[in-house]
Amino acid sequence: MTDKIKVIISNDQKTVKIPSQVRLLIRRSCVAVLRLEQFHGSAEISVRFVDNEMIRALNREHRNIDKATDVLSFPLGENGEYDVNPDTGAYMLGDIVISVEKAMEQAEEYGHSLEREIAFLSVHSMLHLLGYDHVNGGIEAVHMREKEEEVLTQLGLKRNASYYMDEE
After folding, report:
1. CATH match of 5-154 with 3.40.390.30
2. What confidence score (pLDDT) does residue 160 get?
């Protein structure tokens, strides 16, 4: 891939120290999704780390849901059409906001590393920025989950158990 992918990462929380390898992992996650989706052109993505209080405020403001969540995606494009940064010519895909507190809780709950959880949230959110959705469930949600697992496996972060519960 000769196109330039710029991932701008900011840390707006003080609760959790972000390991330096996490920033590289987020960049690798974003690039892996773009490769999987055969995205052509340069791209810019913003990733912001926040605490539960901040993500709750954003969730309330943008989705009218008054609770903390793990990740929020703010796509800047629709139907494959994206704004272009006039200075760089890159497609501006959007913003990813991750609650590091929530990521830590979920990593513990699912029995895997914080790195794996943040990579999952990055991949999940990147798919949203590219137009995927899972809100209505069904085949679309399954398709999105398959893509997430494919990327995480490529990154060496294969899940050790299924996300799905047996319905017996």
Report:
1. yes
2. 59
